[in-house]
Structure formats: structure tokens, C-alpha cells
Amino acid sequence: MGNDIAIRFEHVTKSYREREILNDFNMEIRRGEFLTIIGSSGSGKTTVLKLINGLISPTFGIIYVDGKDISKEDQTLLRRNIGYVIQGIGLFPHMTVRKNIAYVPGLLNHRDKEKTRRAVERLIDVVGLEQEMLDRYPSELSGGQRQRVGIARALAANPDILLMDEPFGAVDEITRKMLQNEILRIHEQLGVTIVFITHDIKEALKLGTRVMVMNKGHVEQFDTPDNIRNHPATPFVQELVQD
Ligand SMILES: Nc1ncnc2c1ncn2[C@@H]1O[C@H](COP(=O)(O)OP(=O)(O)OP(=O)(O)O)[C@@H](O)[C@H]1O
After folding, report:
1. What's the pLDDT score for residue 86?
2. Residue 107 has what pLDDT?
3. Ligand 1 atom index nearest CA of 50
4. Under a CB-based contact definition with an 8 Å cutoff, are residues 97 and 138 in contact?
5. Helix, strand, or coil here: 221?
6. Distance of alpha carbon 134 from its chain centroid, rounded?
7. Which of 13, 14, 20, 21 to mutate to test the pocket of ligand 1 (most atoms within 8 A of CB)?
8. How many whole angstroms from 195 Cα to the centroid of ligand 1?
9. pTM, to two decimals
10. What was the pLDDT predicted at 106?
11. CA 180 to chain centre
């Protein structure tokens, strides 16, 4: 396997009890790629994300991250290398923003407080928030600001891969646009591989270097935004992109 591949699914099947959600699912995500996944509700998008960071295991098949079969890897180390951002991310309410972000690097280099402080101040800058917000509690921030703190926290461990499950679903349209531009800038600046789930086709086409369209556990099209827009492969994709 070429080492420019960050994530690879090889003949992956996932069933919950008797029900098969993914059947012989294959994909390759290149290092530094920004993959957006869009599809019908219940089509298996979140299942794909949870398989990548080992929160759930495949029924059959192999998943490689960084060329390694993740079923044979230390799960704690795997997850440390993969940031996870979800909608309305569970920030710790009794901790300041600073403590929330420092939680991860604080664990990693607890002997070097100064280094942690510098890392937190850089991260708050990366996600476009003011330094003075570091001493506030999550309840003292807007939804969009909390979402930025969630991203900063996911980036704190300096992950190679960032998984984002509808991260901007709960914010207003203007904040959403700002967060989209912010994540594009972060992607460019850090070169991190991003897998991003959305319900919004405009968002999928704007952010993705490639877009995966899923329907009922299978892939309808996995292509560049241009090809999805101009050459829809199936009626399902056609329906999705026509406005
Ligand atoms: N732990 C579980 N046990 C049983 N069924 C599950 C479990 N988790 C998910 N499912 C089912 O698997 C299917 C795929 O779920 P998944 O969360 O991957 O879909 P999704 O595409 O992310 O959906 P949505 O867009 O609605 O969030 C759904 O039908 C869901 O009900």
C-alpha cells in the first residue's frame, strides 16, 4: 500500500445484530485529503467514522490507518492520533476553555506547564477565537464559539486525522459559513486529513477535495466536487445536486 494513503477500508462489512449496514465497503483516503460524506439518514455515515477510530469494529474486512491494520493496534494510541468533533461537542462544563483544551496536551506533557500554555494559546488562535475567551466557561460562549473550542480540543493532540460528524449542524447560517471558511483554512495550514459528515450538499461540495455520496450502506459516487456537480453518476446523486 502506498504510504500516501491515510485510511483504507478493505471489503468491510458491518452489521448491527442481524442488520447489515455496510456490505463489502471499500475506500481509500489520501493523506491530507478533505473528504466530505453526504447521504440519506441512516445510510451508515457515522458508522464509517466510528470504524475509523475503532469505536466499533467491522464484522468482516480490514481497516488500515497509516498503513496499519487497526485491529492489531493499541486503541488508546490510535485514538490519540485521531481527533473527533461532533455536533454540540461535550465540553466539560465545570472547566474553563483553557482547561478544556489543555485536557489532552496536559495529559501528554503534564511536567511542562509552560509548553501546554503556549500550545493552548496557539490553538485558540488557530480556530479564530480571542485569547480572553480562554478563562470563560463553555456556558459563557455562543454555540459557534463552543464549536470552535471543540475543534481546538480535537487538534490539541496534534492528530494526523480529524473526524467531524456534522460539526456545524446546530449553528445559524452566518456562523456556519464562518466555521466552514475556518476549517478550510485550518486544513490548508495544518495539512491534516479530514473526514467530514454533512447533510448539506452545498457544504459537501464547498469543503471537500473529494465527496462521497452514500445511500443505504453503499456508495453512489466518490468523486471530486466538480464531477459530482457536473457528472452525477446515478439518479440519487442527480437529485441531490439539482436545485
Ligand atoms: N449500535 C447500534 N445498534 C443497532 N443499530 C445501529 C447502531 N448504530 C447505528 N445503527 C443503525 O445503523 C444504521 C446506520 O447508522 P449511522 O449512524 O451510521 O447512519 P448515518 O448515515 O450517520 O445517519 P444520520 O444521517 O441519520 O446520522 C441506522 O439504521 C441505525 O439505526
Report:
1. 81
2. 56
3. 18
4. yes
5. strand
6. 24
7. 21
8. 17
9. 0.90
10. 57
11. 13
Q: For a substitution probing ligand 1, which of 43, 200, 216 has the most ligand atoms within 8 Å of its CB? A: 43
Residue pair 139/149 in contact by the 8 Å Cβ criterion? no
Amino acid at 67: G
* Distance from the alpha carbon of residue 46 to the mean position of ligand 1, in angstroms: 7
C-alpha of residue 42 to centroid of ligand 1, in Å? 5
CA-CA distance, 29 to 9, in Å (whole number)? 9
CA 66 to centroid of ligand 1, rounded, Å = 26
Give the binding-site residues of ligand 1, using a 6 Å CB cut-off: 16, 21, 39, 41-47
Cα of 47 from ligand 1 centre, angstroms = 6
CA distances from 133 to 13, 56, 193 (A): 44, 35, 28
The x, y and z cell numbers of residue 80, run together, are 490519540
Within 13 Å and on the Cβ side, how many CA atoms surround 74? 4
Contact 161, 82 (CB under 8 A): yes
CA distance 68 to 114: 34
Calpha distance 34→189 (Å, rounded): 13
Q: Which residue has the cell 469543503?
A: 207
Which atom belonging to ligand 1 lies closest to the Cα atom of 43?
21
pLDDT at residue number 167: 86
Q: Can you tell me the distance from the alpha carbon of 129 to that of 177, in angstroms, rounded to the nearest whole number?
A: 16
Q: How far is the CA of 219 from the centre of ligand 1 (A)?
A: 16
Render pLDDT for 28-51 as a digit per residue (tens, 0 to 9): 999 999 999 999 888 899 999 999
**ipTM greater than cut 0.90:** yes
Please state the atom number of ligand 1 nearest to the C-alpha of residue 39: 21
Residue 8 host element (H or E): strand 5-16
